[in-house]
Every structure is written in structure tokens, then in C-alpha cells.
Design brief:
With about 180 residues, the chain is an alpha+beta fold. The chain folds into two domains: about 80 residues, Beta-grasp domain (Ubiquitin-like (UB roll), Roll); about 80 residues, DNA polymerase, domain 1 (Orthogonal Bundle). Helix content is about 30%, strand content about 20%. The chain is built from five helices and seven strands; from the N terminus they run ββββαβββαααα. Strand 5 and strand 6 form a beta hairpin. The longest helix is centred in the last third of the chain and has 14 residues. The N and C termini lie far apart (about 70 Å). About 30% of the residues are buried.
């Protein structure tokens, strides 16, 4: 380190400015996000913004719910490159070039349709706030483990919270989907 004419300690000849970085400086970035099978441009967002924030606030995706913002409730669950994640815990910039699938991107047919129908038939939907996250998590579970037993189902749902129904009806709905597939 060297001392300049004012007596301040600097970095020397490295060319690095020793000006303190403000705590509220957050670089802005732009990138593409592959969302539900389409390319979406994300422009001029803070680098530190969560995937949840970008989905809801910048892309208008309201099916991904915002509840705890700590990865504990599952209401913001999405698939990122086929892996279930809480979008509130993922930096949106880390999702650049990844395939992000929301409940809407699961499609209106196939396994997601059966899960949605079973949730309705078994009364596993009350207020509906947690339902999109549950549908994503259950669809993911049944794709990986179609014959999951009750312990595996409970483990897979451990990241999702429903404050209205309890879990008996949700598990019954999942079991009915499994039974219909056999």
C-alpha cells in the first residue's frame, strides 16, 4: 500500500480506486429467462433480486405466490431446469438461461391436470393461495416417484405450508392421482 499526497492510504499502482462502495449500490442487469416454454426478456433489474421478485414484479406472473420470502412456505415453488426450488431463494440472475416452469407452464393436460382435479375433488383447496406451489411440488414428486408412499409424500410436501385445509385432504388427493394411474 502507498500513501498519496493527502496522506491517505491507497492501493498503489494497481489502478483500483479505494473509494468505499456504498451499501445500497446494486448493479442492474438484463438477461433472458426461459419461462414456461417461452423466452422472456428481463431488463434493467437489480442483480440481487430474487427470481420470485422478477417473476411477479417485472414479468407479471401472479400464479407464483409471495408469502414468506424465506423459502419456508412453498407458495413460490417453481421448477428450474427440472428441479423444484423456492423462487424466493434463487437469485433471478442465476436463473438466466435456465428453464423455469411455473404452475401455468405445467400445462392444462397431463399430470398437472390430474393433480388440480384431485385437489378440487378432495377439498384440498380452500383459499387457494398455496395451491399453485402444491401443484408444482406434487407434479414434480409424481414425475420422480409415481408410487411414493405416504412418508415420501409427506417428505416431498414438507416445504409447503397450507394454513386452511390441513394435509389429510391433500394427501388423499395425491393418493387418488396415484390410484388412477395404476
Amino acid at each position: 500500500m502507498s500513501t498519496d499526497a493527502s496522506g491517505e492510504t491507497g492501493i498503489g499502482d494497481t489502478g483500483i480506486d479505494d473509494t468505499p462502495i456504498s451499501a445500497d449500490v446494486d448493479p442492474r442487469v438484463s438477461y433472458h429467462l426461459y419461462l414456461d416454454g417461452a423466452v422472456r426478456e428481463v431488463a434493467d433489474v437489480c442483480f440481487s433480486e430474487s427470481l420470485l421478485g422478477v417473476l411477479r414484479d417485472h414479468l407479471g406472473v401472479m400464479s407464483v405466490k409471495d408469502a414468506c420470502e424465506q423459502g419456508r412456505c412453498g407458495s413460490c415453488s417453481v421448477l428450474m431446469d427440472g428441479r423444484l426450488v423456492a423462487s424466493c431463494t434463487v437469485l433471478a440472475a442465476d436463473a438466466a438461461d435456465a428453464q423455469v416452469t411455473t404452475v401455468a407452464g405445467l400445462g392444462s393436460g397431463g399430470p398437472a391436470r390430474a393433480v388440480r382435479a384431485a385437489f378440487l375433488a378432495y377439498g384440498a383447496v380452500q383459499c387457494g393461495f398455496c395451491t399453485p406451489g402444491f401443484v408444482v411440488a406434487v407434479t414434480d414428486l409424481l414425475a420422480r416417484r409415481p408410487d411414493a408412499d405416504e412418508d415420501e409424500i409427506r417428505e416431498a410436501l414438507a416445504g409447503n405450508i397450507c394454513r386452511c385445509t390441513g394435509y389429510g385432504r391433500i394427501i388423499a388427493a395425491i393418493r387418488s392421482v396415484q390410484d388412477a394411474r395404476r
